[in-house]
Amino acid sequence: MTSLMVLGCTSDAGKSWLVTALCRWYARQGVRVAPFKAQNMSNNARVVDGGEIGVAQWLQARAAGVEPDVRMNPVLLKPEADTQSQVVVSGLVDRELSATPWNERHDALWASMASAYDDLASEYDLIVLEGAGSPAEINLRDQVNNRMIEHADAAGLLMSDIDRGGSFAHLYGTWALVPDSTRERLHGFVLNRFRGDPSLLSPGPENLTQMTGMSCAGVIPMVDHDLPREEGASERSSAPVGAPRVAIPRFPFGSNLDEFHLLATAAAVRWVTSADAFGDLDSARDLIVLPGSKHVMADLDWMRERGIADGVLAAIDRGVRCVGVCGGAMMLGRSIDDPDGVEGARPTRREGLGVLDHTTVMGPTKTTTLTEVEAFGRRFAGYEIRHGQVTGESFVSDGRITATTVHGLFEHPEFVERMLGVEVEPVLERTFDLLADTVEQHLDTAWLRSLL
Predict the structure, then answer these.
(1) Which residues contact 431 (CB under 8 A, 6 or more apart)?
(2) What are 366's strand-pairing partners?
(3) DSSP conformation class of 399
(4) Region 343-350 average pLDDT
(5) Is 326 a catalytic residue?
(6) Set 9, 216, 322, 326: catalytic member
């Protein structure tokens, strides 16, 4: 078994994108490959057998053509406040670790990370690991990058976003600051999101190779693709002119927002942070979606403070259709109760928007399950991931107001077509192939093959 690790000089350097591309590229070479990220931080998660993982690793597994597995992302941090996160270990919420101070968690988390990697590595030809942030954060005890690359004895690719500027400094500075055990495994560097003629970069790459020993593994141009962003709320709309409009409040603790990536190809999606975004919606064709939330009551308060809740209700009164998904569905009901303080330090209660009759009670046990619902005369697969127990059915619709506790319905082309009345084409498979084609054209594929 061999392993390759993609590290970044900064956050959002393109690590998740490249790991996804490499998983599909290696799979096309006939390699049994799996993704791995020791620890992720995201409120976008997917349910798999055994619990939940970050959506990036779910997508990477899909690109590799293998079943997503909790071992691919053994630790997932889900922010609930500026200084508080829910800790998910091996797919399940660990309430004790969630309440443990950060610097006291390391040993317990490392045991899960190392065990998951070792189990996964025993079943695949190649593991493509994704780092987190930067491996040169010298103020932190870094287990996700530096300890993991040594444990896996992985070949490292260091990635920089050249569109930000300062890439050679980022690459050299990162190489200089990482521990010796990481530096000796950094075999190459990648310049990502380059605009223009790559020949103009010379002699920069050659000089950097001379100074560090890292070879230039490739220069990747700006790529126009439909891979969902990991946080999901900045979907670019590729819908045609005149397409229906969909307004989605951008909750501070919005979750699973990536599930609307297909919707953005069929509708002009607007992420809403103010009350004036609903006045021009057409009751005959447009739509409001209240998405999932990691902190339902806090996000409901945010909507009310900004006047967004009133804007939603006024649009509904005009006949504009509204869909609530999971946390959004809870908000549409009469009340939300949290007797155990699941979403805060003490029991609390909120009145809902009151457009539907159901009620919600938060509980300490988290539901994470794959499921199906019936809608528009057929069954759609999805998943549930929530603490709240909602009275009534998992999918309720009167044609104007729809509430469902099930995520993933908007990823079915037929569901989107029924909601909006426009045709939709799936995008993920062709996107995976586009990313793999980019690897073939712009990276050192001879070196990638040599790892095998």
Answers:
(1) 225, 226, 227
(2) none
(3) S
(4) 87
(5) yes
(6) 326
In the chain, which segments carry CATH 3.40.50.300? Answer: 2-226+432-450
First to last CA, the chain: 8
Active site residue 407: yes
Mean pLDDT value across residues 296-306? 96
Token reading at 350: 């909120």
Active-site position among 261, 295, 387, 407: 407
Residue 407 is given by DSSP the state: B
Task: Cite the residue boundaries of each domain of the chain with CATH code 3.40.50.880.
Answer: 245-426
Q: What is the pLDDT of residues 31-65, one digit of tens each?
A: 999 999 999 999 899 999 999 999 999 999 999 99
> Residue 253 has what pLDDT?
92
Length of the chain: 452
What pTM value is reported for the model?
A: 0.93
How far apart CA 310 and CA 278 sit, in angstroms, is 10
Rounded Cα–Cα distance for residues 68 and 46 (Å): 9
Could you read off the pLDDT of 179-232 as tens digits, one per residue? Answer: 999 999 999 999 999 998 988 999 999 999 999 999 999 999 999 888 887 666
- Look at residues 48, 54, 50 and name the one whose alpha carbon lies nearest to residue 73: 54
Name 435's Cβ contacts closer than 8 Å, sequence gap at least 6. Answer: 17, 20, 21, 24, 25, 63, 223, 225, 227
Give all strands of the β-sheet with 287-290 in edge-to-edge order.
Answer: 268-272, 245-249, 287-290, 321-325, 401-404, 395-397
- Average of pLDDT values for 98-104? 84
CATH match of 245-426 with 3.30.465.60: no
The pLDDT, as a whole number, for residue 308 is 97
How far is the C-alpha of 353 from the C-alpha of 300, rounded, in Å? 9
Per-residue confidence (pLDDT) for residue 82, from 0 to 100 = 63
pLDDT band (50, 70, 90) for residue 241: confident
Query: Residue 194 has which token pair?
Result: 């380059």
Does CATH number 3.90.230.10 belong to domain 2-226+432-450?
A: no
Burial class (CB in 10 A: 0-12, 13-18, 19+), 137: middle
